[in-house]
């Protein structure tokens, strides 16, 4: 179906689904149309990866953010994940040690590493890094993470206020290394029943009220992290729930844009409705309007 078919306004009847685990997601290919001199030609199709994480995704948390990590573990338990989503914490200001946290009613040890190298060496299957580094160290720590692009494929940068010229450098390098950056200045994102980034979705009571413990079929993308939590609530009340949600962040140059995520959602057969929450300023909403046609 075209992108236009997935943008719906007002009430929409969505079939209720009870499947907790989404099917294995293939890689689709979509052709792009380029304009030549006096004619249009179809360029070589590019792969569209429409899943950033799934129920088996694990991550590192950069920074000693115990409350955020415990919130992620509570989310994991509510989703009935077999294993915690947090493989380890990276804190350059301490030596290697273990933290005692809860996974449901069970007390577990979460390792804390002094360096990224130690963490990646111990957990080579981790694909996501959630960075709570301050604006003073976010650039250098993200640069270091990009050195491990064979392992880390998604980086969420929570800090705001990173200089724009440095953000543009990170975005260019991440694109060259095929790494998706969410942020800067973001709360992150959530894929109900699978994985959540940091403090996205709030604490356990809000996760349960918004039914984020199981997938729906509505995918959204917003700039505001706070308003994304409100979207979780609105969507859960009026539809069968959220399939995935991302807050791209409030900075001028986000690592991934509205259209990057909309293309992912549009390629995903499990997504039946796409919701965009824009803000005043910028041109990304115009890019969405121009993309709503049968050719894209």
Keywords for this structure?
single chain; disordered N terminus
Brief overview:
With 296 residues, this protein is α/β, with parallel strands linked by helices. It contains nine helices and 16 strands.
Commentary on this structure:
- It is globular and about 55 Å long.
- α4 (138-146) runs parallel beside α5.
- The protein has a 7-stranded mixed β-sheet with strand order 7-8-6-5-9-10-11, sandwiched between helices. A 5-stranded mixed β-sheet has the order 13-12-15-14-16, with helices on both faces. The chain has a two-stranded antiparallel ribbon with strand order 1-4.
- Helix content is 28%, strand content 23%.
- The chain has helices at residues 3-6, 66-78, 116-122, 138-146, 164-176, 204-209, 225-238, 258-266, 284-291, and strands at 28-30, 33-35, 40-42, 46-48, 59-62, 86-90, 97-103, 106-113, 128-131, 154-157, 180-182, 189-191, 195-196, 218-222, 242-247, 273-277.
- With 296 residues, it is an alpha/beta fold.
- It contains 9 helices and 16 strands.
- The model is unreliable at 1-45 (pLDDT under 50).
């Amino acid at each position: 179906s075209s992108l236009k078919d997935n943008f719906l306004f007002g009430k929409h009847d969505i079939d209720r689904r009870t499947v907790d685990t989404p099917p294995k997601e293939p890689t689709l290919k979509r052709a792009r149309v380029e304009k030549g001199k006096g004619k249009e030609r179809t360029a070589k199709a590019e792969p569209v990866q429409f899943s950033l994480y799934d129920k088996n995704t694990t991550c590192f948390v950069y920074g000693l953010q115990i409350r955020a990590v415990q919130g992620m573990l509570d989310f994991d338990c509510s989703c009935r994940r077999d294993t915690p989503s947090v493989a380890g914490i990276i804190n350059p200001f301490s030596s290697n040690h273990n933290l005692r946290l809860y996974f449901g009613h069970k007390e577990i040890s979460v390792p804390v590493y002094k360096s990224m190298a130690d963490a990646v060496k111990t957990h080579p299957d981790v694909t996501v890094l959630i960075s709570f580094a301050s604006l003073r160290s976010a650039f250098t720590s993200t640069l270091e993470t990009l050195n491990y692009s064979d392992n880390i494929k998604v980086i969420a940068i929570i800090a705001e206020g990173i200089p724009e010229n440095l953000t543009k450098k990170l975005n260019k390098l991440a694109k060259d290394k095929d790494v998706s950056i969410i942020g800067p200045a973001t709360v992150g994102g959530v894929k109900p029943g699978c994985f959540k980034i940091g403090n996205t979705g709030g604490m356990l009571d809000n996760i349960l009220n918004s039914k984020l413990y199981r997938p729906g079929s509505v995918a959204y993308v917003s700039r505001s992290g706070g308003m994304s939590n409100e979207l979780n609530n609105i969507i859960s009340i009026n539809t069968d729930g959220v399939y995935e949600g991302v807050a791209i962040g409030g900075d001028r140059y986000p690592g991934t844009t509205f259209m990057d995520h909309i293309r992912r959602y549009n390629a995903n057969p499990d997504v039946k409705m796409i919701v965009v929450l824009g803000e005043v300023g910028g041109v990304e909403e115009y890019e969405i309007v121009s993309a709503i046609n049968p050719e894209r």
